[in-house]
Amino acid sequence: MKATGIVRRIDDLGRIVIPKEIRRTLRIREGDPLEIYVDREGEVILKKYSPVSELGDFAKEYADSLYEAIGHIVLIADRDNIVAVAGASKKEFLNKPLGAIVEKVMEDRKAVLLNNLGEGKSCKNCIVDNDNDDEPCTFTAEVMAPIMVEGTAIGAVIICSRQPALQMGDMEVKLAETAAGFLAKQMAP
Q1: Nearest Cα to Cα of residue 82 among 58, 115, 59, 113
Q2: Which residues of the chain, if any, have pLDDT below 50?
Q3: If both were cysteines, with which of 61, 65, 110, 172 could 168 make a disulfide (CB 3.0 to 4.6 Å apart)?
């Protein structure tokens, strides 16, 4: 565990404020659920709770099935990271932070279709945050659909391809939306 040197007091209602710098670094937003753990030494540990990553193996199997059906790379993400990968290197995507385009899709709460990517263009629409927008985009087409539970985006289903000149269309959008809807139903209370 890493010490921050920040000390906070518990108020009369039992609340403690997580400093803004830590919330920003860990990408904790207002309303995000946190899981509370207590270890044997009496330390209290707060961890961001991700209902999508709770699906674990199920999300991976679902991504594999979708990949086998359509032949395009399939990624499933929670609010912060890629949690399941099919059709591409796990090292390249698994547990990587999301890029701004995926965050925007979740914020806007609607599916997005992007064609004619790559071909030497800079990666302004990168799925994962690679800290280098000048790097060429490796995908030619992407479809992203938010996973919505009770009006809140908790993740996304991403279908993408590196095939030259490939154009995705309504079918891939419908597949991503259907997958997102199905995963949402697995997490609904």
Answers
A1: 59
A2: 120-122, 133-134
A3: 172
